[in-house]
């Protein structure tokens, strides 16, 4: 079963936008290999990410994300079973917060 998980967090004070770029780059490769798709948005120090894929795989990735010291205050906003992917064309991509919210509302 596919799930869609959306979470929010706050960047740690020493995390830079270069760090965020590396996260997206590496995540894109890892996610492609494990069948995860999604989008990441950063607005100031606030982060929101949507992950889609097999439930067990997404849940495992989320556990790793929670342990990542580059951000704090990680909280799940929602986690739902889905019939299909909303972000099927992206193993991971960075978009603005507003753009991601508009895309996820479609």
From TrEMBL:
Residues 2-93 form the BLUF domain. Signal peptide: none annotated. GO terms for molecular function: blue light photoreceptor activity; FAD binding. Coiled coil: none annotated. This is BLUF domain-containing protein. It comes from Aureimonas glaciei.
